[in-house]
Amino acid sequence: MSDQLVYEMDAEEGRLPVPEPACATMAWECAGERIEYVASAGHIDVRTDTGKLLGKMFALSYVAAPDARASARPVTFCYNGGPGSASVPINVGGIGPKRVATDGLRHVAAPARMEDNPATLLRVSDLVFLDALGTGYSVVAEGTDPQDMWSVDGDADTFARAIVSWLTRNNRWGSPVYLFGESYGTMRNAVLMRLLSERFVPVTGVIMLSSVFDWAQKMPGSLLGYVGLLPVFAATARHFGRAGAGTDEAAWFDGAMDFAERVYAPMLLRGDRMTPAEKASSARELSEIIGLPAELIARNNLRIDLTTFRSSLLADEGLVTGRFDTRFTTHAPCTSIEVSSPIAGDASSDAIEPAWNAAFRRHLQQIGFAGAPEYPLSNFMKIGITWDRSHEVPGSGMRAAAPNVAYDIAAALKHNPTMRVAVLGGRYDAATPWWNAAHDISNLFLPEDLKRRVELKLYSAGHMAYVDEPTLVELGRDLSAFYR
């Protein structure tokens, strides 16, 4: 384990020597509206039922200046995913009171400009951004096996304990509680909303941004994985003028969604029982939708994985598309580097994440928090690769090696039928395709009263939808309505 992740216990006091907490009074202003708030940075003890310290979770909270209504003001616990990602993107990129100004689909130049976020969720809720243990400034206690927490169930348990601790320490048990997770944070959300319900912690609402629920669909060779990617490929091909000329963006995507279910899925189910003529005809039909040569599609048996698509669509221009947002492009790597290699990067990440990191560190300085020199914005290579994805299926007593945590959502809604869930996504998100999330929710067969508690909303954006400024405004408006 890295020294950044495991700190030696203070033997005399039995605690981890983390930096002192810090806070500062700040103000958000936009379009004549003003909110004074306190920004606080510090750590939350994560302890077992017997009091053993598992670690300290770093939390950056924004609480509006207290008034007579403070106890009734919602509080939202926010996090990214990975597994192994800190909560910086969703904070200074998305819904925090300050954000990094983006530049369309272009790489953000340094130094990045910070601005008051016109779509901040602080307008309707206090915000607490949490870093999973082992990411950011969150630390694991000596003598604790991190693999116990680097798992689907262990991770959700640590977040449940941290949330209960924050509510208690800040006298907020009277506040409506919301959860906001992005990417793997939506898988965490699904398990966490059930855990909290089972532990008698009422949750008012849950926001799922760029969702993944059924891990089996992420496995290589999954037919549902290919089906889910097809609408993303179609939207991307249209964006770059390789298919769908003259069509409306939303209509073209919706048509691809329908094609994926009604036509493409049966194609894949046929396998090599297709005749050569049927296969060639199907490849030509797919070519018209996703913009790749029919010969390439046929050669891949109608199964185009993400790496093949990203490296092939704009190969004649020497470009590779992004993964988190396929509208971003970068120059193709040299022939010795695979497009999917971490070395090759992702244009949609490279364009903004360094700016987020620098801006966040400046923001902590303004608050007065002195953290360690290193802040692992993403620790996937250490945490995500070894992550235990097995999960106890609710009510079954069995563990699934590749879980579908959508069932946890259903179980949580039955525990708490007043809770509401918003599932949000982007058309250009190839990391967590929209079709798969919509498919998983539709296959829960919820009764009508619970089905009405779940709303789905699609944006003209990628995985980190808030990078796109028009989407940011739309997202802010939709979230304000969700809280109302």
TrEMBL record:
Pfam families in UniProt: Peptidase_S10 (PF00450)
Species for this entry: Collinsella ihumii
Protein name: Peptidase S10
